[in-house]
Design a protein that fits this description.
This protein has helices at 3-54, 61-83, 98-133, 144-171. With 182 residues, it is an all-alpha fold. It is built from 4 helices and no strands. It is elongated. The protein has one domain (3-177). 76% of the residues lie in helices and 0% in strands.
């Protein structure tokens, strides 16, 4: 093999390794997020049982449930980008040729990245306000910046995952048919 093709092959291998690392990272974040969702369900269930049996409420369940749901929602979005698991409406693309579908997939990738960038930008501004004012949750006094941390980290990782999916689809258009999960 010529040195130039070895360099090109090494770059392609490094790119594939980076894309795989991003996919695995999104899977870990989603797994943790779903674990936190299970905790939120458990807390809500415990609160219901406590109310029925003892007539009282478990203080802070709402705060903790909201925090867990934020993690589950925003840490699962990047995984959906990585595995192309978002809902797709193919009324238009079903009747188009392969090349037009690839262009639509590319447009979807660019719009996904733009959406995550917008969420990150707007969320960052709001998170800074929460940080400056030192806002806390109503029952437990959890700093609201923690809620925003899930949104911001999820949006950032979602943008990276959307870009990675775009690159993966660009170098391997067959991957656009649907990536496999972990």
């Amino acid at each position: 093999m010529a040195p130039r093709s070895q360099t090109r092959a090494a770059r392609a291998d490094a790119l594939r390794a980076a894309l795989h690392a991003i996919e695995r990272t999104t899977a870990v974040f989603a797994f943790v997020g779903i674990g936190l969702l299970v905790i939120a369900v458990g807390l809500a269930l415990a609160d219901i049982v406590w109310r029925r049996l003892l007539g009282g409420a478990v203080v802070g369940v709402i705060d903790l449930t909201q925090l867990c749901v934020m993690a589950a929602a925003f840490w699962s979005i990047p995984y959906a980008f990585s595995t192309r698991a978002h809902v797709v409406v193919d009324l238009l693309s079903a009747n188009l040729g392969r090349r037009a579908r690839l262009w639509l997939d590319a447009l979807g990738g660019v719009l996904s990245l733009a959406l995550m960038a917008l969420v990150l930008y707007l969320g960052w501004q709001r998170a800074l306000e929460q940080w400056q004012f030192g806002d806390v949750s109503q029952d437990l006094g959890i700093p609201l910046i923690l809620y925003w941390a899930f949104l911001l980290s999820g949006a950032a990782l979602g943008g990276i995952a959307a870009a990675a999916a775009f690159v993966r689809d660009a170098i391997d258009p067959g991957a656009a048919a649907g990536a496999k999960g972990f």
